[in-house]
Amino acid sequence: MLKLNKFPIGIFDSGVGGTSIWKEINTLLPLENTIYLSDSKNAPYGDKNKQEIIDLSIKNVEFLLKQHCKIIVVACNTATTNAIKILREKYDIPFIGIEPAIKPAALQTKTNTIGILATKGTLNSDLFEKTSSAINKKIVKKEIVGKGLVDLIESGKLHSNEMTELLSSYIIPLMNENVDCLVLGCTHYPYLIPQIREIVGDKIQIIDSGEAVARQTKSILEKHSLINTSSKNSSHKFYINKDKKVLEILISNDRKNLKVIEEDF
Ligand code: DGL
């Protein structure tokens, strides 16, 4: 029988942001081989309609399946909330998705007021609406569309005055509304945490779902007996359909076994 364990975990996002999830997965599962797909040419997904997001997600999955991925992590809240149901119906492979962590935020808030920073596509989705309506009714939810944030990160302006101004315009009003938990509902946003901290100090707790997604990935691999136990160095390929510079900066650190490939898909 073909041993699937050594086959890679496939991970995709509209762009470079899902590398924040890749890092969590790589930290928890260092022996796993991975293939990451950054569809930066089509970012942001958040301003597109549901059908466009579904079509792009299918294109990404087809690419990852050609690379023999054993499971697929949809490292994008916008793609998860709009397309994961269709992907699960269409393909016979486990999918792991990511959604804004509003349930943990609802449990942790003391002021009963939480902020949710996400894309328009996520906040308008049926799945978000469903999750949102299931939490305690006395929790006030302040939803903010982070318009422009993904574009700035994709264009290499993570650390720029433009970014600080845009972020402040979204976050300062939340502080005035008694928000004590801020949910980061987009996988690009964990890269903004140091700047958000500069703005909010320690007044607001920042909550994202990256670690939970890595734990869920591990548990699904275990459930399907797909964990890679090989002690050989794991290999990691990153495909991007735009200039690779921004992605390289985000993943670089001191890792040696990473390969970034510019390719149209
Ligand atoms: N990283 C995507 C997410 O988690 C960004 C969405 C976009 O491309 O607008 O939603």
Question: What would you note in describing this structure?
Answer:
With 265 residues, the protein is α/β, with parallel strands linked by helices. The chain has 2 domains: 142 residues, Rossmann fold (3-Layer(aba) Sandwich), CATH 3.40.50; 108 residues, Rossmann fold (3-Layer(aba) Sandwich). The chain is built from 11 helices and 10 strands. The chain is globular, with a radius of gyration of 18 Å. The mean pLDDT is 95. The site of D-glutamic acid (DGL) has 18 residues, from helix 3.
In short:
The chain is an alpha/beta fold and 265 residues long.
H/E order of the elements?
EHEHEHEHEHHEHHEHEHEHE
Main sheet properties: 6 strands, parallel
How do the strands line up in the largest sheet? 4-3-1-2-9-10
Global shape: globular
Structural class: alpha/beta
CATH topology of the largest domain: the name is Rossmann fold
Tally of separate domains: 2
Poorly predicted tracts of residues: none
Rg (CA only): 18 Å
SS elements, strand count = 10
Helix content: 40-55%
Q: What top-tier CATH class of the largest domain fits best?
A: Alpha Beta
CATH architecture of the largest domain: 3-Layer(aba) Sandwich
**Cofactors, ions, other ligands:** D-glutamic acid
Average of the residue pLDDT scores: 95
Topology, please?
Elements: E1 9-13, H1 19-28, E2 34-38, H2 50-66, E3 71-74, H3 77-90, E4 95-96, H4 102-108, E5 113-118, H5 120-123, H6 126-133, E6 140-145, H7 149-154, H8 161-176, E7 181-185, H9 193-200, E8 205-207, H10 210-223, E9 236-240, H11 245-251, E10 258-262
Parallel strand pairs: 1-2, 1-3, 2-9, 3-4, 5-6, 5-7, 7-8, 9-10
Helix pairs in contact: 1-10, 2-3, 8-9
The protein binds D-glutamic acid.
